[in-house]
Design goal:
Helix content: 25-40%
Oligomer: single chain
Number of helices: 6
Low-confidence stretches: none
Number of domains: 1
Largest sheet: 5 strands, parallel
Mean pLDDT: 92
Strand order of the largest sheet: 3-2-1-4-5
Strand content: 15-25%
Structural class: alpha/beta
CATH class: Alpha Beta
Number of strands: 5
CATH topology: Rossmann fold
Length: 139
């Protein structure tokens, strides 16, 4: 988020955030809510959070996915987005459609990557977990 904001401070125009409601107030604080357009889940709690952060209704796309390429294009165009910020959300989160929409519109897309976590031990099934716990006396 910090790196993205440093880049976004250099960009003129509207920024389309599809990173969710958790980080929207931080972006608003660092960049000014007036520069942002956000896509979030349509819940009362989320709307209250965004309102408290300085967003107005015309800056909010409260909608639940999945989103097609065509819908992403229309949402980005409607917001007059000059750049899009999204999370590395994989196929289920529709990141490919967001990137493709940006490519078709000729606008940059910043992708916030998930932090790399180093787990001391990984298993791929409950049986494997049970065996590991028994062998290491961690019950």
């Amino acid at each position: 988020l910090e790196e993205a904001c440093q880049i976004l401070k250099k960009v003129k125009g509207k920024i389309y955030l599809s990173t969710g409601s958790k980080t929207a107030p931080t972006y608003a604080e660092q960049l000014g809510a007036d520069r942002l357009h956000v896509r979030v889940l349509p819940t009362t709690k989320v709307m209250e959070k965004l309102t408290n952060a300085g967003f107005v209704a015309s800056q909010i796309d409260a909608i639940q996915g999945p989103f097609s390429l065509a819908l992403n294009i229309e949402l980005f165009k409607h917001a007059n987005a000059k750049i899009v910020v999204t999370k590395e959300s994989g196929r289920q989160g529709g990141v490919q459609e967001k990137i493709a929409a940006c490519q078709q519109l000729g606008i940059p897309c910043i992708i916030i990557r998930r932090p790399q976590i180093s787990y001391p031990h990984m298993v791929s099934s409950l049986q494997e977990l049970e065996k590991y716990l028994e062998e290491n006396d961690e019950w």
